[in-house]
Amino acid sequence: MVEEILARLVAFSSVVGTPNAPITDWIADHCRSHGARVHVLPGPEGDRANLFVTLGPADVPGYVLSGHTDVVPAGEDGWSADPFTLRVEGERLYGRGTTDMKGFLACALAALPVLAAGPLKRPLHLAFSYDEEAGCRGVPHMIAELPKLCAKPLGVVVGEPSGLQAVLAHKGKAAARLEITGRSGHSSRPDQGLNAVHAMIEVLGAATAHGRDLEGGPFDARFEPPHSTLQVGIVSGGRALNVIPDRCIAEIEVRAIAGADPGALLEPVRAGLAALEPKGFRVDWTDLSAYPALALPADSDLARLTGELTGRPPCAAVSYGTEAGLFQEAGYDAVICGPGDIARAHRPDEFVTRGELAACLAMILALGERLRA
Predict the structure, then answer these.
(1) What are the phi and psi torsion angles at 120 (to 5°)?
(2) Which CATH number do you get for residue 306?
(3) Strand order in 155-158's β-sheet?
């Protein structure tokens, strides 16, 4: 049943930043058919929604299985077949989102008939978000609604691909778009214009120097690299070589070790951008995304539980980010634990294996048995 559900999920393109009603409607119908209570939580965009599903009594503490329904685009070269049609070759199941993270969603949905067959004394909730791939934009709206939807959960398992090994910590992130507007003119008279590209080079030069300073610490040996980082990812500007560019845009991000505020690490860059205004430039700063680091104590009940369910000791930390940090910031213990390998995500011929799905389904069913006790 897991493979059939995964095939249906993969067939919904559900690319980040696009309407997601087709996939959420299908999931909602599937959950209702097994007696679960479904809350569709529209986001402010108007064409996207989170889903919160409950099996068992909502007025007592239980556990949340958290995942996102969106995927990154599949326009890159290298796909051997249609990325939105599940392709099975031996143990491997190929398709966009199989690892990140529709494989986990399929396991959670496949477990519902078994979980519904016997009464749960404590609930199992499914929290499926949208636009995670754009910097966790959807899940904050759902987290804000949780106190109205259920008793405070005992823990949240975020099913990002981790080899089904519990992950206790990850870095936080903040990203921003910088825009500089100057004054155009002929390149033979640079004194009569304001070169936005030159101004951006000045700002980004200081930003990359700030990034090098971050390499000097503070350090956290659980992460690779063991310090916070800054990257300039996109720069664009100019129309022709003989025209003074009057506009330049850049996008930057920081990844912050636990205990460091990602937003604060960007403040020196924001200050450098603002310093251009007295020189006649118009500047604009747009926050693109932000989420905090995750840091779950190794001796927490949730860490022990996931270790028991998987039969594997927890991993101390990873450098990629997830929605788990946002759940923890809101006061809920959270851990990462899902099937697949993050190294396969966002790449052509993304895949998950049958064995990985079987192990994840077994973990969820084992959790269900504990909720019956």
Answers:
(1) -95, 130
(2) 3.40.630.10
(3) 37-42, 49-55, 124-129, 63-68, 155-158, 334-336
For CA atoms 210, 250, 286, 136, the dihedral sign is negative
Q: Are 24 and 105 in contact (CB under 8 A)?
A: no
Catalytic pick from 3, 47, 59, 70?
Answer: 70
Same domain, 165 and 192: no
The one-letter amino acid at 69: T
Residue 18 three-state SS: coil
Chain segment 116-148, per-residue pLDDT in tens: 998 899 999 999 999 999 989 999 999 999 999
Say how far apart CA 242 and CA 236 lie, in whole Å.
16
- Which residue in 100, 131, 132, 323 is the catalytic one? 132
- Whole-model pTM? 0.90
| Pair of tokens at residue 80 | 């051997």
Are 162 and 57 contained in the same domain? Answer: yes
- The torsion of the CA quartet 187, 190, 196, 197, rounded to 10 degrees, works out to 60
Residues 6+ apart with CB under 8 A from 126: 31, 36, 51, 52, 53, 54, 64, 65, 66, 67, 108, 109
Catalytic annotation present for 349: no
Catalytic site residue 70? yes
CA-CA distance, 77 to 124, in Å (whole number)?
40
Beta bridge partners of residue 230, listed in sequence order: 254
Cα–Cα distance measured from residue 193 to residue 177, given in angstroms and rounded to the nearest whole number: 23
The per-residue pLDDT for range 198-253, each reduced to its tens digit, is 999 999 999 999 999 999 999 999 999 999 999 999 999 999 999 999 999 999 99
